[in-house]
């Protein structure tokens, strides 16, 4: 798994490479467990939904800041454009996965190294920790 972290430049690239690795693992093991086909589709749909929700929240926060301050309009427009560009690149990545049949997905691998069960579990835990609920879980417990 460490090669995935060495090859990424950080941020969205890291997340997308981990998502590709997880989806590749699920694709390789669908013959063993047919429920992995559903899991693969669920993850793609969830990540697409997350991208849409994050974009809406970011744009809403930009509009709220713009209406409250009103002095940094050019900076806010540029930031909103960056938010939209990042969201579109994520969605493009997910659409390419949706259009690709699961058996063809293995040809999209970045490296010939495969992910084993332990690595897949680690990737799932890492990606789950990036979700808003997981990040705010300590706050819920303290309250």
From TrEMBL:
Residues 58-78 have a biased composition (Basic and acidic residues). Signal peptide: none annotated. InterPro entries: Scc2/Nipped-B. Residues 58-81 are annotated as: Disordered. GO terms for cellular component: Scc2-Scc4 cohesin loading complex. GO terms for biological process: brain development; chromatin looping; digestive tract development; embryonic viscerocranium morphogenesis; establishment of mitotic sister chromatid cohesion; establishment of protein localization to chromatin; heart morphogenesis; regulation of gene expression. It comes from the Eukaryota. GO terms for molecular function: chromatin binding; cohesin loader activity. This is NIPBL protein.
